[in-house]
Amino acid sequence: MEVQSVISPYEELIAYEILMASGYSTKKIINTISNNDTISVKNILDKDLSNKLFDEHDIRRNIEKHIESKIGTFSVVIKDQIQYPDTLKTANHPLGLLYYRGDLSLLNRRSVSVVGSRKPSDEGLRRAKKIVKKLVRENFNIVSGLARGIDTISHQTAIEENGTTIGVIGTPIDQYYPKENQSLQDYIAGNFLLLSQVPFYKYATEHFKAHRYHFPERNVTMSAISEATVIIEASDTSGTLIQARECLRQNRKLFILKSCFDNPRITWPHKYLERGAIKVEDFDDVIEALNK
Which distant-in-sequence residues (6+ apart) come within 8 Å of 78 by Cβ? Predict the structure, then answer.
């Protein structure tokens, strides 16, 4: 009987960093893994090395040197580990590797993403606080992206209500954006869970304008670890709509507040309603739909 070799989290980490630094996207890695449940990130790297698509050695040396000073300040979880969360196993597009700080077991709790505009209205902030309070009282874990606006108030309200929260960031696990949320991010990492899929070396060596592309990928992760997403308010060009699309692709529930439909300046709510989103007339509608 063939014995399957144990995959080293460190080797998976290095392979992930090498692939990303060599031009791979998170989406390409996810799609490759999705098409073959038994493949690891290192398998992808080994295949590309055999095809001589790039020279690994210089990149590996630079990456290992770059990461060396960071070892001990973060952890990684890979899809073949027993700790790999069930929520990601059931996703249509499972991640191969996640960087994290904090309590990974929170990923096995029922979780809902609460997201929206970085420049919300006062009424939007009030609605976000109200829905988070109700979700916390029903023992749901609150997921958001640590951005300004709705994300920040969602995390803060979950903490104030003695709930739990997960922050998913679009920077490496040791970076802060926006800077004013540094203390909030550290508090979440120290008491709850902070996640990232952004590789250290690529982020450090790419042009700063490329950093923005990591944030849409962050929304894919948020949709995957949540059984549902609630959109409080968003414009037609908001990055929140990336999560809306990914939520439906992942077969997760998507809730859109009625107030979004009442806004004549935007058209996206009706488009997503046609694709399977749920219009929320009352906050209790969210709880009822989640418990069906």
Answer: 7, 9, 12, 40, 41, 84, 96, 97
